[in-house]
Amino acid sequence: MHFLFYLSFFKVLLLLAITAPVALGFGFLGAMAARSHFPPLSLLGKGYIAIVRGVPDIAFFMFFVIALDQAFEWTRHKVLCPEWTDPIRQGNDFVVCQAAKLPLGNSPEWVHETYGFFLAVITFSIVFGAFAANVLFGGMRAVPHAQLETAEAYGLTPRQTFWRILVPQMWVFALPGLSNLWMVLIKATPLLFLLGIEDIVYWARELGGFKNPKFTQYPHGDWRMWYFLALLVFYLGLTRLSEISLERLMRRLSHGQATSGGELLRKETTA
Amino acid sequence: MSCIQTIQDYALRSVGFGERLLPKSDFTLCEQFTLIGSGMIWNIYFGLMALVTGFFLATAVALGKASANRWLRKPSEWFIFLFRGSPLFIQFFFAYFFFLSLKQSYPLLDTLTSAWLGALIVLFLNTAAYSGEIFYGALRSIPKGDIEAADAYGMTGWSRFRRVIWPTMLRLAWPAYTNEAIFLFHATTLVFFSAFPVWQQRGDALYYAGYFADKTFNPFVPYPILAFYFILLTLVVVWGFGLINKRLNRHLPVAQKSRIKFRVNLAR
Predict the structure, then answer these.
(1) Which of A134, A177, A235 is facing B90, going by the closest CB pair?
(2) B234 to chain A: nearest residue by CA?
(3) What is the DSSP string of A115-142?
(4) Chain A residues within an 8 Å CB radius of B264
(5) Which element (helix H / strand E) includes A40?
(6) B-chain residues near A232 (CB < 8 A)
(7) For residue A184, which of A96, A219, A251, B176 sits 20 to 30 Å off, Cα-Cα?
């Protein structure tokens, strides 16, 4: 059982490793949409950013896990069982045909777990994508406008301007926001527990507790407090580690940049 | 049953007045609106109380962190690091089980395990740490000239702090502090989803939204209602903090008055 507890730490790290790039992708798409000159698309992008920020993220986690599950099953139902005529929502039930069930009723345990994890990753990515979209949108606006005008004057098309001028310069401006976001993402990972994943919070409660008859082989009282203290320390270490490495990254990126950070570096080396 | 009737029955359900039994089936839109709105009482209670009490500790912690005295600085730094570096969710869990074990040795501390006090303490400490860091940042960016001017007027100690340092600090910190307040209100939804038990189904807005979503297996109604309430709450917070911001900046000429920009740094 303790093995599963240690394994769940890797689950958290895995979630972080998958979610971060996917959320960045979502964020990039969102920021691009919000910058678009086509009104419905820019409205979509801005609405995506605004709504996710105006509502508690935990509400989104609760919502998306059910909503995504139902959306997948609904689509599969339409495709796999076209002959089915009963309504899907029958009062308080959500009924789809057997073949459309996700995961299939007869599939092994690990498929169920992976599917749940997969849903969690998508949910995290959607929510944090909105935060990232906000940061990247701000970063894109921070790039000096003269740069874009120069590109236009050289005859670059809007698409070329975006990819060759705007995107490479935006990162320095977006990095402080993104590193802040990374910290928030780390601190949001225990919410996995709410999504029904057997993560570190789940195991800390199970192993520390003594009421559960499954664990009577552990001859101790209520140790949940100590387990959670261990989790607290784990997260503190994780954030401290990220703080240090992000600091290093920022130093590297500001090297030779015309910002106050870059100026500081120049003085340090010449002095 | 008419909607007025429902509101009479359930509007104060989350604090224990009105109908005891929650609706069991055939939920109307009115019932969902009323109950989730009733749950908002808890969110507002936690947010407001933590904000008001946390403000004072935050000021103290910020001053401690900026202090030259090692014995004040180090504890403040550790306090801020501890609460900003770990997830609030885990803090709730740890605090609950900590209070639970305290209760076993000291039965007098019984109330600590109930959400209204125990969770409030955690939120209070948490927001004090976050706002403390914001205030500390503001404290360090107070224009040097302001303090020199205060010195030139012969102000020292308390009067210098009260009349020059503190107002300037607040003015500089206010936009970021508004963000913190918004996030604090969002964080209140975690209370009943961590370890703190819901007593007699008196929960917060998310608890009732989750209740409806569980019963109907349809997330598309209760969660948007919840979202509606929270967007409303966010707008009220932004408006209220805007008023205070106006008052803090009342001496500045109109052109210089900075409008709070909410685009920046909304993730804490």
Answers:
(1) A235
(2) A54
(3) HHHHHHHHHHHHHHHHHHHHHHHHHHHH
(4) 138
(5) helix A39-54
(6) 86, 90-91, 94
(7) A251
Question: What are the tens digits of pLDDT across the range A98-120?
Answer: 666 666 666 677 777 788 788 88
Range of the domain at B109: 31-256
B234 with A191: Cβ contact below 8 A: no
Q: Which fold is adopted by the domain A2-201?
A: MetI-like fold (1.10.3720)
Residues forming beta bridges with residue A93, ordered by sequence position: A90
* Partner-chain residue, chosen from A53, A70, A188, that has the shortest CB–CB distance to B266: A53
Are B230 and A56 in contact by the 8 Å Cβ rule? The answer is yes
**Residue B123 lies inside a defined structural domain of this protein:** yes
Which of B89, B103, B218 should we substitute to test contact with A (largest number of A Cβ atoms within 10 Å)?
B89
Highest mean pLDDT among A181-190, B18-27, B45-54: B45-54
Q: Is residue B268 part of a domain?
A: no
Query: Does some domain include residue B142?
Result: yes
The domain spans of chain A are 2-201
* CATH code for position B200: 1.10.3720.10
Query: CB neighbours of B73 closer than 8 A, spacing ≥ 6?
Result: B64, B65, B66, B67
pLDDT in tens, B149-199: 999 999 888 999 999 999 999 998 988 898 889 889 988 988 887 778 887
Percent of chain B with pLDDT over 70: 94
Number of cross-chain residue pairs from A and B with Cβ atoms under 8 Å apart: 125
Rounded to whole angstroms, how far apart are CA atoms B65 and B54? 16
**Substitution target from B77, B93, B191, B225 for chain A, most A beta carbons within 10 A:** B93
Residue A125 scores a pLDDT above 50 = yes
Q: Is B197 on the interface with A (CB under 8 A)?
A: no
Give the pLDDT confidence of B48-95 residue by residue, as tens digits. Answer: 999 999 999 999 999 999 988 999 999 999 999 999 888 888 888 888
Enter the ipTM.
0.76
* B241-256: average pLDDT: 81
Instruction: State the Cα–Cα distance between residues B181 and B51, nearest whole angstrom.
Output: 7
Euclidean distance between CA atoms B122 and B119, whole angstroms: 5
Q: Phi, psi (5° rounding) for residue B72?
A: -90, -35
Model pLDDT, residue B265:
47
Across the interface, whether the CB atoms of A62 and B219 are under 8 A apart is answered yes
For chain A, what is the mean pLDDT?
78
Distance (Å, rounded) from C-alpha B7 to C-alpha B1?
10
**CB contact, 8 Å: B126 with chain A?**
no
Which residues of chain B have a CB within 8 Å of the CB of A55? 186, 226-227, 230-231
Contact call for B219 and A56, based on CB within 8 A: no
Task: Tell me the nearest-neighbour CA distance from A64 into chain B, angstroms.
Answer: 8
Number of domains in chain B: 1
Q: How confident is the model at residue A216 (pLDDT cuts 50, 70, 90)?
A: very low
Beta-strand ranges (E) seen in chain A are 89-90, 93-94
In a domain? residue B16: no
Using a CB-CB distance cutoff of 8 angstroms, which residues of chain B are in contact with residue A208?
97
Interface contact B87, partner A, CB < 8 A: yes
